[in-house]
Write a structure and sequence with these properties.
With about 120 residues, the chain is an alpha+beta fold. The chain contains 3 helices and 5 strands; from the N terminus they run βββββααα. A 5-stranded antiparallel beta sheet has the order 1-2-3-4-5, with no helix packed on it.
Length: about 120
């Protein structure tokens, strides 16, 4: 599912509608899902990062990380996100030859990360 989509589900015999958006970025997929709270017309956002990983036996699985964001936190979250992104834009080199994976794992080898998970 890439892009935007309205999703319908049935809960307690009542139809719940919410919104979902996603995009792929190299080896990751990001999902932005609006989920209903039990209160009428109240929602929260889940942001999920999904990465395809391979086990030692060669089979693959998806590693997922989620953030749950509630409406009362939107403004502070966006302010901090924008501030942080602006810092990165202003202070990063424009070396397009270094891949995103190299940048993220610069301080940790893949082996180190696998050791942490075990």
């Amino acid at each position: 599912m890439e892009g935007n989509e309205r999703i319908e589900s049935m809960e307690n015999g009542k139809r719940e509608e919410y919104y979902s958006s996603s995009f792929r970025s190299r080896q990751r997929t990001y999902y932005f899902d609006v989920r209903p709270l039990k209160q009428n017309n109240a929602f929260y956002l889940t942001i999920t990062e999904s990465k395809k990983r391979f086990a030692k036996d060669g089979k693959y699985y998806y590693e997922k990380h989620k953030i749950f964001l509630f409406k009362e936190d939107f403004e502070n979250f966006l302010n901090s996100l924008n501030e942080t992104m602006n810092y990165i834009k202003d202070n990063s080199s424009n070396d397009v030859n270094q891949s995103q994976e190299e940048l993220i794992t610069e301080d940790y080898s893949i082996k180190d990360i696998d050791d942490i998970k075990e």
